[in-house]
Write a structure and sequence with these properties.
This protein is α+β, with helices and mostly antiparallel strands and 98 residues long. Helix content is 33%, strand content 35%. The protein contains 3 helices and 4 strands. It has a 4-stranded antiparallel beta sheet with strand order 2-3-1-4. Strand 2 and strand 3 form a beta hairpin. Helix 1 runs antiparallel to helix 3. It is globular and about 45 Å long.
C-alpha cells in the first residue's frame, strides 16, 4: 500500500496579473477536487501579500498525483498561468509515522 503525498505549492503572481491568476485557479480547484485520489485541495491567500497563495494538496498516492498532472484542466492551467507567475515553490511531503 502506498502512502499519501502532501504537496505545498507556494505561488506568487505578478501584481498586474494577480486577478487573472486567481480567476484561473477556480476551475482548476473545482475539477481537481472531483479527481479520484484527491483527498484535499485547499487554497490559502497570504495575509500580508495579496498576490501570493498556497495550495495545500493531499493525494492518496504518488500515482494519483501523477494522474492529476496529466489531466487536461491541470495542463491548461499551467499553460495559461505560467506567464502570470512571479515565483513558485512546490514541495512534496510524506507523512511520518509517530
Amino acid at each position: 500500500m502506498s502512502s499519501p503525498v502532501i504537496v505545498i505549492a507556494q505561488l506568487e503572481a505578478k501584481p498586474e496579473c494577480a486577478e487573472l491568476f486567481r480567476a484561473a485557479l477556480e476551475p482548476l480547484m473545482a475539477a481537481t477536487r472531483q479527481e479520484a485520489g484527491c483527498q484535499r485541495y485547499q487554497l490559502h491567500q497570504d495575509r500580508d501579500n495579496p498576490h501570493s497563495w498556497m495550495l495545500h494538496e493531499q493525494w492518496e498516492s504518488g500515482s494519483a498525483l501523477t494522474a492529476h498532472q496529466q489531466q487536461p484542466h491541470f495542463i491548461d492551467f499551467i499553460a495559461r498561468a505560467e506567464p502570470w507567475l512571479a515565483s513558485s515553490n512546490i514541495r512534496r511531503y510524506q507523512p511520518l509515522d509517530a
